[in-house]
Write a structure and sequence with these properties.
- This protein is α+β, with helices and mostly antiparallel strands.
- It folds into 2 domains: about 110 residues, Metal Binding Protein, Guanine Nucleotide Exchange Factor, Chain A, CATH 2.170.150.20; about 140 residues, 2-Layer Sandwich (Peptide Methionine Sulfoxide Reductase, Chain A), CATH 3.30.1060.
- About 25% of the residues lie in helices and about 25% in strands.
- It contains 8 helices and 17 strands.
- Strand 5 and strand 6 form a beta hairpin.
Amino acid sequence: MKSNIFLIFLYLTLSLTGCLQDRSVSKLLNTNINNMDSINKYKTLTPEEEYVLVNKGTERPYSGEYNDNKRKGTYCCKRCNAPLFKSENKFDSHCGWPSFDLEIKGAVNRVLDTDGLRTEIICSNCGGHLGHVFMGEGFTEKNTRHCVNSISLVFEEDSQNSETAYFAGGCFWGVEYLMKKKNGVISTTVGFIGGVKENPTYEEVCTGKTGHAEVLEILFNPEIISFEELAKLFFEIHDFTQVNRQGPDVGTQYRSGVFYTTDEQKKVMEKLIIILTEKGYKVSTEIKKANKFWKAEGYHQDYYEVTGKQPYCHTYKKIFD
């Protein structure tokens, strides 16, 4: 703002003295003023965002909100909102940062990093630091990995019909593994819900003192798969008669529960429990309104897919007709 005032003052002073008859001076001043107006349009950054985007820092691996994001949409620059990457070019490199094998044409510039070894990538519109690009690793056919800090990005989801549901059925690894494969499931995230502590860690939840349950957050398209279909599958992949445990896993964090996000979800759950009770089951599943969901640490996400292992306490058993 001070720079703008100075330039305007200089412009007026030169106008009065006739100096602006030199068109090169006039052009220079107007260009600088326009540049300042452009800069002032950039988003005001938090200290953490400025550390990465301006000072070329790096966020901790697996800490960014978009590392495990599987929704469809466009990733834009946090500083100027310029589109940078499309979701169809995002892949999981297991490096701890969002990875893309292709940028939107003309959106990203490559420059030699100050270390003289790596190639830095910056937003071509505002120059904000995004991360680095690596070649020849063989992750995808494009053989390119744009390793990007989540904090440098803002995600704009494609417009589509979506709904969120929360299912707690013991260890969230197995619940995710068996439910994420259903057609209509947009994305899955494991975490904690139903407790009182802010931002709990896995170790804290395991003490049983935070009140949280291990839960799977599902974003789904109700035009493709209904909540009732997902709820039926939920009952068919875990033992909903057990209290505060699931097989060898014992503790309140392993309790069976559904945390509804709409009144319709609640009605569906109440209907299914009546059906199960009539079938002779003693249902221990709790039904509660969803409160704050806390995402679990990165190594818990897609655990069985990443490790190649199989669920040890979740199997499918058909119950509903």
